[in-house]
UniProtKB/TrEMBL annotation:
Organism this protein belongs to: Streptomyces fructofermentans
Source superkingdom: Bacteria
Short name of any one Pfam family annotated for the protein: HTH_67
Family matches, as InterPro entries: HTH_67 (IPR054058)
Protein's recorded name: SalK
Amino acid sequence: MTTALPERAGRRCHNVLNPLHSTHYFSPDLGREMAAAGVPDARAAYFAVRAAAMGAVGAGTVTATFYNFNHELVERHVPEVWRAAPPEAVLAARARAVDTTLRRLLGDEVIASSEVAEAAGLALRAAEACTRTARPLYAAHADLPVPEEPHLALWHAATLLREHRGDGHLAVLLGAELDPLEALVSHTATGKGMAPKWVLATRGWHREDWDAASLRLRERGLLAPDGGLTEEGVALRREIELRTDRLDRAPYEHLGAAGVERLTELATGLLMAALAAGAFPDGMIGKD
């Protein structure tokens, strides 16, 4: 049974679940686990942990499914990374890192709480309505077993919901005719995306690439000379999110309005605790 939701309720829920999933990407625990598995390079480790559910895929598959990375960066690490650590070893290292990261950020008392167990149950219920069709990253993660421990089950469900929305979002970006870097530049211009220095440091692009993408957006009337969005740019980014919401509505409608509200409340509390514990680097979000 599905129920109508308040406007943007699913997006608000995603916006607190997604960062909980992402905490491990910025965790020293992941670096230690992946180094022990034979992958000391942070970029190679990121490609490996996110792609491992798909198996020992090549650089083309990673570039296609991750969307906003420079292919030249990807192919420097993939498929070589699988020779150092096969997907099964990477998934095991990731699970250990997630466990350690969440325990460190939230504390064992919170990890063992009824609220975490409740959030896990709600998130898993929402994920029941996710669909595999044309969603490769979601589909690959959906084939993985659900962890028994509630905090890991919550992280797993958050991962499913994140990748389900993300796969749909890429289809919307293609429909909007935004290439990978144009999508990043326009998102940063909203004030909610990664700061340019973080994009350039992690996505394999160069300043001249960023400037060229900015020029293309200005020529389309989407970006102002000062780097902010024009009215047309604001409208396009709004429409992109609304279309993504529509493609991602099934899990939240399946959970129902009351369940989505409760899951959002629980996940917000957990996220605030993680942020207070320093889950993410300073200055990562913004236009600077």
